Amino acid sequence: MPRHELTDEERKKGGHNSKRKSHSEQLAELAQQKIDDEGCTYEVAIDKVLVEKARAGDFPFLKEYYDRRYGKAKNHIELTGQDGGPIDNKITIEFVKSDSEVS
Questions:
Q1: Count of H helices and E strands in the chain?
Q2: What is the pLDDT of residues 72-101, one digit of tens each?
Q3: Cβ–Cβ under 8 Å, residues 91 and 97
Q4: Any idea of the CA torsion for 43, 45, 46, 48, to the nearest 10 degrees?
Q5: Residue 71 backbone class (left: φ over 0; alpha: ψ -120 to 50; beta: rest)
Q6: CA 78 from chain center: how many Å?
Q7: Where would you tag: which of 19, 32, 34, 49 has the fewest CB atoms within 10 A of its CB?
Q8: Which pLDDT tens digit goes with each residue over 39-63?
Q9: What is the dihedral of CA 3, 65, 54, 42, to 10 degrees?
């Protein structure tokens, strides 16, 4: 089902305004089901759920896993001036007489 389509249950709850579970909440629930069904450890259950979800094409679960396991990727932003040099920063203060002070 494409992401923009709502299920009947979501329509009853109010569509996009309804509270949806985050990927981490869904992952925790699915892992708990695996633990209950197969008796495996939490780590093994998470790995199994993630592999199943990835094979099904649900890649946000993989992002969630790697963000938790290895930390979120850092955004490296380098600010440079013209031609890669330092940024020119210049502050100019100008004092101007107001109209009432002008004679």
A1: 4, 0
A2: 888 888 788 878 888 888 899 998 888 776
A3: no
A4: 120
A5: left
A6: 22
A7: 19
A8: 999 888 988 888 888 788 787 877 8
A9: -110
